[in-house]
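Peptide chain release factor 3, Paenimyroides marinum. Tokens?
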Amino acid sequence: MSFKDEILRRRTFGVIAHPDAGKTTLTEKLLLFGGAIQEAGAVKSNKIKKGATSDFMEIERQRGISVATSVLAFNYKDKKINILDTPGHKDFAEDTFRTLTAVDSVIVVIDVAKGVEEQTEKLVEVCRMRNIPMIVFINKLDREGKDAFDLLDEVEQKLGLKVTPLSFPIGMGYDFQGIYNIWEKNINLFSEDSRKNIEDVVTVDNLEDEALDKLVGEKPANKLREELELVAEVYPDFDREAYINGDLQPVFFGSALNNFGVRELLDCFIEIAPSPRAKESDTRLVQPDENKFAGFVFKIHANMDPKHRDRLAFIKIVSGTFERNKPYMHVRLGKKLKFSSPNAFFAEKKEIVDISYAGDIVGLHDTGNFKIGDTLTEGELMNFKGIPSFSPEHFRYVNNADPMKSKQLEKGIDQLMDEGVAQLFTLELNGRKIIGTVGALQYEVIQYRLEHEYGAKCTYENFPAFKACWVRPEDVKNEEFAEFKRVKQKFLAKDKSGQLVFLADSEFSIQMTQSKYPTVKLDYVSERI
Ligand code: G4P
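Tokens:
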């Protein structure tokens, strides 16, 4: 197969959902179709069970599993599918945001009874801002849920999407009979007896045909006809370009647990979802089929084995091919590095490979060279844009609890920050260190990992900040800026890359600052480049 065809057949995507909507179940069913796993239950849920805040074993277990399920790759028909795992737990949302910089499209899973939930809103907003193509899968149709039209309205309003259903349910819950596939124009009947993996696809060329009444009963058949008429009137026809541009989102209905509607989703997905897309760097737009390799780090994972504390850096290949033992330029460090054992992912395993193509993810063993957002090339000096660093919501001073281990503590904090577990700020006034996190759970993870991986101990102390605002531009000559720095001295810090940050204690204080010093620009997001 030619180099270009290899790239064109790749589909790299993420499944996003509010916890419990069925992300793990759907992922597992997709893998079953790809023949990548043989039985249900092979993909372990990486979610942190409720009440796990103080259960460190649970955190370790979760980390172990999330290494294994970070990338799930398999072949389906003539396509190579790469599913990137996105943690649903809100305390790990930042990890998910970063993973979304490495996907070419997403599938959004929504629970038919719960509708659009909080985490779905946040994640979809990020995808919308980046025009990532999205397909919506409405799950758990075997249960009583919301009316299909109401749900489509909710998706449009709460998520700000423009949808078009490509399948439509016939009944729901106890009355669930199956799904009419608008895309393929056939009916998939749900088997009442088994409620298992039995699928019965009936082609219906003409909806007016009496065969439909015989299949599902006269009343449901008429209801379906009316509903499909309404669908045709209310929703736009599917338009692939609009979908690819992020302007239109096709919707499927089904039940992941019952493996129902999943094949339809997958078959349509491989047909319409984009192959690897071009990515903007700070100097130019990089096309996937360029001959030269370029890629970036979107995730770093510490090794679970305490004897081998090296890390695995996950690289999304943006262009060309990544080859084993070939020297690549680490742009930030300005030096060439060779990798003798790059890992590729297959199902839930990883293995060493000689060559990977644009769209693929490779895992590189790292002894501390990488941080999130780093770019690798064949020599070109450019950096990929768009790895965001969001304002933390929690802030605590970090204190050394074991003076004999200050080096270890420093190293541990440094490496954990490079992994993107949390963000470190150093106060301008006295050099004290503050750790900012998206969720409170991270503090326990950090404390636990510092002790178990680096032999260091820390304690925390509250720092009364509400948000971190990145200050830009840093114009030293500007008098207003000098005044701002003088007055807010106690709340100013530097982040790890040396950027100035204002640790505001309230929304009010941000507003006051903005009106008093209008030329000092404050930003909740820092885009690492
Ligand atoms: P998540 O990764 O999005 O957090 O969700 P996950 O797949 O773990 O699914 C959450 C729960 O919803 C699981 O039940 C799962 O079995 C169930 N589920 C998923 N898809 C369907 C569906 O189509 N119909 C129905 N009725 N249930 C579905 P659980 O009891 O929380 O977990 P488990 O003990 O079954 O693993």
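The chain has three domains: 3-174+237-272, 279-377, 394-523.
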